[in-house]
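Cross-posted from the bioinformatics board.
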Amino acid sequence: MAAVAAQPVEPGASPPAIEVHRLVKSFGHRTALRGVDLEVAEGEFLTLFGPNGAGKTTLIRCVSSLTRPSAGTVRLRGEDLSKAATSLRRHIGLISHNPLLYGDLTAEENLRFFARMYDLADAQARIDAALQQVGLFARRRDPVRDYSRGMVQRLAIARAILHDPSIMLLDEPYTGLDLQAADMLRSVLQDLAASNRTVILTTHNLEQGLEMCDRAAILHRGKIAWQGVRTGLDLAGMKQIYRDVTRLA
Amino acid sequence: MSYLNKILAIVWKDIVAELRTKEMFSAMFVFSVLVIVIFNFAFDLRVSGERVREVAPGALWVAFAFAGILGLNRAFVMEKDRGCLEGLLLAPVDHTAIYFGKMLSTVLFMLIVEAFMLPVFTAFFGVNLFDLRLVLIIVLGTVGFAGVGTVLSAMTAQTRAREVLLPILLLPVAAPVLIAAVKATSGILDGQAMAEIARWLQLLVAFAVIFPAAAFMTFDFVVKE
Amino acid sequence: MERTDRREPLLIALTALSGAMVLVALYLALLGAPDANLQSETGRYAQRIIYFHIATAWVGFLAFFVTFVSGIGFLRTQDRAWDVVALSSAEIGTVFMLGVLISGSIWARPAWGVWWVWDERLTISLIQFLIYVGYLMLRSSVEDPSRRARFAAVYGIVAFVSVPINFIAIRMWRTQHPLMFGTEEGGLGPNMMFAFFFSLITFTVWYVTLMWHRIRLERLRDDVEALKLELMG
């Protein structure tokens, strides 16, 4: 079985986990990102706020290597994503609008498939652990198309953490979750925040987003309109900042 | 090798998914039987006896081509519908592995359907199709057809027109594969010498190599935004 | 964005030249060239279409080659300019290819009494025409412009790869049957050769002129789109 690729050795101080530099993305004549500069240090939890159409999903897609930027660079763990995408993806976990799961397969088969795609050793143990964590161990032999929406999202979370990625990207993960799934997501996020993983979370919901982050930023009309640390920032303060920033044309 | 392992993982996944629903299989099989029946009954009105053997190879490959198109459509529509393609794109493997995985599973499904069709065809058209050389032709033709069909299917699954567009794009491009396959099949049914059939076989081999090669080089542009 | 085309007078001159050349070619083909050495009178008249038929086919395939190369250019540079060339060439090629099919029919009917023959060249022209149609249909079913350009480029490349092989396959296929209709090359005298090559050059010039017009049109369209977006904020 192929071993996991060796990590690149970084001399001196460790570089930021995520570095986005002058990122531009256009779709035809419409420009979604107009020069985004962002840095997320290793182990940091960043929440990205922004209204609809601000470009949050596009930014997440660029950072996760799903979308190629029109201009600018994305560096993960010090390496250029456009050059080392194949190996860097090993360290990326994504939770987005799509669950990325196969309805005809059982939960276990889905995870087994992804375990193979990520070259995971001790796959069965990891699968069992992930299923336990999201509370789906009992239903692991059921096809995913029989799952409720909340269960699907929980399994999607299991899929995303299965390969233990050091970078987690969550694009509006609370969307459409029932109470049980939302609670479970919160506990997963708390684990992520406590761990040494680097996280970017995008959301509309100021309260949920502010809860666990180390830093917050606001994306507006394709640019980072504001960034700041969490300490000393409460919900009311954040709401005000948000209103001010997004009101400016 | 990790790359190969992932290709096989994709094939395995497609097989398991198909075994669960048997959706595509039954569609491909029933459809091809229908095509054979319709051809048979359409030709029977004007073509009879020995002359049926003349049209048999053409009918056979038309049936295979349509079955192939059904299979190809399903290959990527299944990935696109639930956003699963992105799951594959996020995996730490070159995207060409997705191409090969999908192509191999399509070839596999097509071969199984084709194997089932042969006895049906023999029954309706009264021609003896059980010849080992025919197996080679069918395999080569299927690989060439699916080789180019897979990349085109990856494209059309992402367009508005979806399933309708694939045959429009695929058939003109795959026409030479079909021509070569029909000629080679006729050659065998007519009992021609291997030397005669050989050049059609060479053409089929060329396609089985060139089309996957071209698809392999362009696949990334089709799936990556 | 201002687009003052300083080369406009050149385009007008080229258009005029094309027009003139086409008229001359028409004269040569219909009147100037000597009669072919054929039995029937209608056959002799019909044969004159060969001057246009082959020239049209040449442009039809040249245009696809241009689409193929532009497709590669686009994939490497992601520059819209390549896509404009690819699209323009495909559109023009489609029309010319249709011309091949129609002129082939016009020739076949009085010469041999049928509207269509599965002659190798006509067959490959038909397939090429269908590929063109597929190309244009593909473009119209993708909304996002950059994706449209990418997909069209890939199809252009994959389809082009099959063209030479198509040709070989069909050639092999047709040579198994006795060629019912004599080759066109048989017995082309020097005057006919002149008309023939003149047509070839004329149609190529015509193609270039049409390309220039079409590319210019597409660029203007792009400019309008950009302006619209600017105004809408």
